[in-house]
Model the fold of this input.
Amino acid sequence: MPKNIPIDPIKTFSKSVLKSSGIPIHQYQKSIQEELKIYGKENLIELLRHMYIVREFETMLNSFKTKGSYKNIEYIYNGPAHLSIGQEAAAVGSAFALKTEDKIFGSHRSHGEMIAKGLSAINNLSRNKLNSIMDTHHDGKLISYIHKNFNNKEFNDAEMFLLTGVLAEIFMRELGFNKGMGGSMHAFFTPFGAFPNNAIVGGSSGIAVGAALHAHLKQNKSICVANLGDGSTGCGLVWEAMNFAAMGQYKNLWPKPFNNNPPMLFCFMNNFYAMGGQTLGETMSWDRLSRIASGVNPEQLHAETVNGSDPLSVADAVIRKRNILLEGTGPALLDIECYRFSGHSTTDTNAYRSREEIKDWKSFDPIELYSQKLLEADIIDKKNLDNIIEKVQNQIEILTSKVVDRELTPSIDITKKPTIIGDFTFNKQVNRISKTANDLLMDINQVNQIKNMKKKSRYGKTIDGSLLSGMRAITLRDSLAEAIIYHLSNDKSLIAYGEECRDWGGAFGVYRGFADIIPMNRLFNAPISEAAIVSTAIGYAISGGRAIIELMYSDFIGRAGDEIFNQLAKWQAMSAGELKLPIVLRASIGSKYGAQHSQDWSSLLTHIPGLSIVYPATPYDAKGLLASSLKSNDPTIFFESQRLYEKVEIFNDKGVPEEYYTIPIGKAVKRKKGRDITILTIGASLYPVLDASEELINHKIDAEIIDARSLVPFDYDMLISSVNLTGRLLIVSEAVERGSFANTIATNISRFAFNNLKAPAIVIGAPNWIAPGADMEKTYSPQTDDILDSVFRDFFPEKRVNKKGLRKDWNFLELAKKGL
Amino acid sequence: MTDIIIPNLGNEISEAEITEWLVGAGEEVEEGDVVLLISTTKTALEIEAPVSGKISQINFSDGDLVQVGDVVGRIE
Ligand SMILES: Cc1ncc(C[n+]2csc(CCOP(=O)(O)OP(=O)(O)O)c2C)c(N)n1
Done:
């Protein structure tokens, strides 16, 4: 069904002028008396105290980094410290305006934002709720440490809990919020609405949008904030994320009550510098950061530039934007201008800015300015102010003295538990499918495409053994569709998106018919923003949802490189298992379209620790493995091959069961028994290997064929026991040979089955150059003759068979020496 | 005389099923009229009359499998 947003040529070509409205710059004008009426004295003073806490906390870190001591505490801290001294008003003002359930996502420079958000949450939460959060976090270990070490009367235990959790995390201690696995740049504590900070510049932008999408679909009246640096306006993902949050389809096409935009606020903590590169005037094109919003949507993201040296100006802006977001007309953007007095990091020599400039900004020190304001308005007197400062100093000093103490606050002892980081990598949880989907547009069985599948034979051969057409028997494409629609039509927390996924049914037709069943808010066309597709899925998942996303061609993985390599793969371990990423990323290995559309990049991703990776080759496996991937709470990359979508089931003689079933990830399957040589196939290479094995029988070579199915984890047990019997191993994969996962398996087998090997394990992959176009493709992916040649040359030279493949005379060593 | 041919249906797709003929032999059609619906394992497609004229031949019936390049009918 077309969507019905008609593009009218007459209207398109009619003459007009595109207008944009102004963007307010520093329009905040409220007097302190007005603010006093709004917030009351106590809150205004709290703001100040929170700024002091942030400042003192970071002063302490700075002192350790530069002097090796803070007050009388000596400590060498080896990790990073990207301090935000000078930016406290931005962090505290914003946190003050947010509710506990609002989520912030930060950058490498976000200690202050996270602490401020926590302090604000502590003030807003009921004591009961606070207790239950603290009692359940890490089995109450942190809160009992707090009660043991600090006098409850003197120090607010929840604040000590927060500050200790953050500092212990920065110092990589087990009591840290993420057991020290995240550290300074990745700290977070979700119960207070402080979601992951991100060491990749701009990395939080898409993740926050995904979380906002979750809040939107849950309709839970909260907002999500990405706190980003001005430098991140040069990042592609940030632009992708802004567009993703602003897409027209929410308003135009999504059903009620989802027909407005996700509540997403882009907060740029604009301190005018990246590290040493100056954004304004040097590395960026904008004259004012907020201008970037005018390129995104007609509302210009409701952008404003506000004064980040005044917490009240920031709070005022965030409150107004929050209201806009809850009305559904977001996203919004704030350009919060502020200045970091601290260097980018503590080794910064400030070579890129003048002393005069730093001095000029000192008279805009937010803490000085705001203290002065409160003093002048008699909201606080000098004595009380000094008292606050002293208390904050004591608070930071005492908790620091405890955290640096390695006896009292140890790190996880990796020497005692050498594989514990591995244990954090996968949670291995299997989700029970919730039967929550009450939003289906149509009964599945009434949809033509599904009805057509029901008419097909489940097995791919006729009674007399001839092969059925994909029009008559269930194909691999159909079997993927069956697994996905089962999950989508049961589990309402699952969303599916990617490029051209809806009306088109996905570039390869797996989702055809789904648009008649699944409402648009759970199955939609994403923009051509591979990075944002992956990034938003991460945000959606860590907020409690589940996502199946499609990258169309696996060649486009590069466009989502960071999001797959550094985010999807790492957050479970970086959070010490706190976060779960139930995401299935479908990537299709192409054919016929040449070098940028035909690469098997499975090996690229097996190289990245933290991703489960499967690559089925048959309809039966595709359905069962996709079902398992969708049930898994670990991030899973699901490779498909375009050469295989039309394949019918020929191995399992009961065909592809119509009912739902799963196949465990990590189990290989024996396709043929044999005793002379084991041939392991990865993905689509199964089929040429099968043909080769038939020819081998004519030469009295009985090959055993194992189809890997899962790459991470891989079924070494089956392979080793096979190799122990045959003594020979050939691995065939369509990935380029150099650095391929097949080589990893070969090395492991050489080690673990060495005594039984009669010859070294051999890998056949694609040659180490580009995939050529359709007519030359057979010169690239391993063909039956290439496989036969290798078997005869490398394992059975005595057979003296004429070699027929393209590679028969290749000198592999010479090629390798040439980098080929 | 012009053939009605099963067009290229996309990467790795070689066959289709005749879903429904919308015209019968002897009927007059205009160039661009949809004369035939086909479906592949991936998608459904409408086939248009390549020229105006009279349908002179229909070579496959509804439900038949056809290959890319097959002449499924003729217009005179
Ligand atoms: C993708 C990426 N590129 C480069 C870096 C190295 N780096 C760390 S911080 C930084 C500057 C960031 O500037 P900005 O976004 O303005 O934030 P600020 O440091 O000013 O808070 C750079 C280049 C990185 N962490 N990630």
